[in-house]
Amino acid sequence: MGRALVCAGANATSIWGDPSRTIKKAVEMLKTRLGSDLVLSRLYQTPAFPAGAGQDFVNAAFTFETDLSAHELLSELHQIESDAGRTREVRWGARTLDLDLIAMDQEIAPDAETWTKWENLPLDEQMRLAPEQLILPHPRVHERSFALVPLCDLAPDWHHPILGKTLTTFRDALSPEDLQSVKPLN
């Protein structure tokens, strides 16, 4: 068994309703499929990333124990996105549902060298390129307020296996403007 950290985001209406409803439905579906102890963070309203890329998002995080591998879990997450009507036409475009596997315990995938390559990718290349393989932990989780704030609701003491810091440390290093842009909805 391993503990998964997942971030959810949506800024377009899905077949299940508005973004908040869509995220809650995705969580219900995952609980049903995996029968897990899934715990959901609060929901937050956040600006689109990158700035000006569209309507505000609803973001959340959840964590649970699973006996699935990271690849098996990612497949389940992609299936739920598809069930919600997600299409992958424009990188960082509007989404009915985005489920990102952030971490599986302390797993590094596929290796530290590949992780470092993607972590150091310039923003213009991030906007064009997507990795062909699963990268764990997510190579930019430590930079993004829309992920860090909800994750800190659930796993504030999780240590990044490469950078060696906690989610709380990363969140607290963000600018006040970044933190203020993440507004609780519930």
Précis, in short:
This protein is an alpha+beta fold and 186 residues long.
Order of helices and strands: EHEEEHEHHHHHE
Q: What is the percentage of strand-forming residues?
A: 15-25%
The CATH architecture is 2-Layer Sandwich
Helix count equals 7
The helix-and-strand class reads alpha+beta
Biggest beta sheet summary: 6 strands, antiparallel
The CATH superfamily name is 7,8-Dihydro-6-hydroxymethylpterin-pyrophosphokinase HPPK
N→C terminal distance = 31 Å
Work out the number of β strands.
Answer: 6
The CATH class, by name, is Alpha Beta
Q: What's the structural domain tally?
A: 1
Stretches with pLDDT under 50, minimum 5 residues? none
In round numbers, the mean pLDDT is 90
Keywords: ATP-binding, Folate biosynthesis, Kinase, Nucleotide-binding, Transferase
Family: Belongs to the HPPK family.
Enzyme class: transferase
Pathway: Cofactor biosynthesis; tetrahydrofolate biosynthesis; 2-amino-4-hydroxy-6-hydroxymethyl-7,8-dihydropteridine diphosphate from 7,8-dihydroneopterin triphosphate: step 4/4
Characterise the protein shown here.
- With 186 residues, the protein is of the alpha+beta class.
- It has a single domain (2-184), classed as 2-Layer Sandwich (Alpha-Beta Plaits).
- 35% of the residues lie in helices and 18% in strands.
- The protein has helices at 19-34, 70-83, 112-119, 123-128, 145-154, 167-172, 176-180, and strands at residues 2-10, 39-40, 44-46, 57-66, 98-104, 183-184.
- Strands 1, 2, 3, 4, 5 and 6 form a 6-stranded antiparallel beta sheet that branches.
- It is globular.
